[in-house]
Every structure is written in structure tokens, then in C-alpha cells.
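Justification of computing resources. Each target in the renewal requires a structure prediction run like the one illustrated here; the chain below, 320 residues long, is used simply to show the kind of job we budget for.
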Amino acid sequence: MAVYFFYGDEDFNIELELQKLSSKLNPDFKAMNYQEFDNPEYSVLVNALRTPPMMFGDMLIVINSEEYFLSNKNVFNDSELEDIDDALKNNPESLNVVFVVKLPRDENKKLDSRRKLYKILSKYNTKEFPTFKTYKVADISNWIINQAKTKDITLNQDAISLLIEQIGNNLREFNAELDKLKLIAYPQKTVTKKMVEDICISNQDLFNFTELIMRGNKDSALLEFKKLLDKKHPLELLSAIQTMLRKWIILKISSNKSSMELSKIVGMHEFVVKQTLEKLKNTSASELVRLKQNLFDVEFKIKSAEAIDIISEVECAIIR
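Resulting C-alpha cells:
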């Protein structure tokens, strides 16, 4: 039996850790020996903690516990907490339990260590998963190297540097790009800077595209959009642009802050923050908001299956 307590605002690292635990389950009985609960009430939680595996091998129970810690009031009374503590101490030997608290990203929220439930869980295998600071390039680089190893590839240092410059500290996006880079590199196992340039959209690519739209240069914007489609599916492209616009809007409305502070807020390298602010000096926040809303509308239309021709829908949104 093992009890784990994972928390932090880097949800992707938490998910990777859960995948490692899940991979140890007997694959023949995994469907029955894996359960996940979202903030279960007292009776359901205690029953789950005392549940023996359905078949051979260990059982894994994941308890998503955000409400237990982020609620303004204590979810459990003292008597219920005693029962939970007792269940954890005496649950079946082959039962593994993971309490998970995914904190909102970039909000600097912390768990209240004074809560009795925190004190109970912290006696076990406790690990915090914080978001990497954008200025800690070495830490991000090491994560990329290790994650690449799990995919049986390696990256040249200049390729890693370019990835970090373009993506910042978004581990989920790094992982997605590594999957693509593995395919591009095949049958070789070393990823080069040129490969990163070929498949990853840079801030400059996105800036060129959005700048053309805001200038009213629709024809050139459509041509730029077609170039971007060589690297991304339309929905991936819209998602990347939406994420970028959100960061740009924050930069514009918070431009009185230092580049270091802004870097922490938007998850971009400090050097990229300075470059972006310079490029956006003649663009108003209201223009960015309007463009974001237009692209959000077409993205919603595509995802809700209202769009017959996805590319045409995006092109129409650009022209509008």
C-alpha cells in the first residue's frame, strides 16, 4: 500500500507522474483496478479508501481534491477526518491512493498547511509540482532533455534553446512538439535546430500574421495563414494564436510592470517579453481584444461542428 499527495500548478507534470503509477497496474485488469473521483463526499471517499482490488494485482485510486483545499470552509469535520486518517493507515496492502490538487496556473496560490487534511496527507509521499519559472532556462532545458529520452530521441542544444524561446515554459506544448519532432527526425534520433524551425511556429510568425490583419492587409494575411498551415492544423493554429493574443493583451494592460514580472505572469522568456512589447507599441489592447474575439468565434464554430470547410471559415474570419 502506498499513499501519495501530489499538488501544484504544473498539471502536466502531475499527469506524467500519474501515468507512471498507472503503467504499473496489471494491463489485463486495468479497467477494474483504476478509479478516479472528483472531490467525493465523506462516505464515498472512505468507502473508496477501503476498497480491495477487483482482480489480481494492485489497484490505483486517484482522488482529485481541489475543493478539499481551495474551499473557504473545511469540507470534513473532525470525526470524518479521523476516519479518513484511519482508512489511510489501514487500507488494503495492494491499494495505492493518490490525492491530487491542481492549482490554478500563474495565480501563485498555495495550499493552507494548517488544514488538518493537509497534515494527514503530508505524512505520506508528498510532492509539489510547481510551474517552471521562465527565467530558469536550465531547469526547463533539463526537463526537455529528460522528456525527449522517454521518446527515445535527443535534441541539439541550439534546438532546445529555440524551443524554449518559442514556447516559454508550457510543458504540455513542449511534449506535443517533441512528438512531432520525433516523426520529423525518423529514422534518425537526433533533433536539430532546423527541424524545430520547420515545424514550430515562432512568435515572429504569429506576429507577422496578426499584424497584417490589424493593418487591414487581408490578402497578405491570407497568404501568411496558408504558410502557417504547413506547420499546424487550423485548430492548432487558432489555439496558438489565441494563447499568444491572451499573453499580448496581458502585456499591453500591464506594461507598467518590469519585464521580469511580466515574464512570470505570461510564461514567456524575459527577452521575448521585451521584444514583444517593442513590436506592440503601436497596437492598442482594444485591437487585440477584438481580434481575439473574432478568432474565438470561428474556433467555437469549428469545434461545435457548424463549420463545413474549416480553412474557409478561418479565412472568412480573417477577412471580416
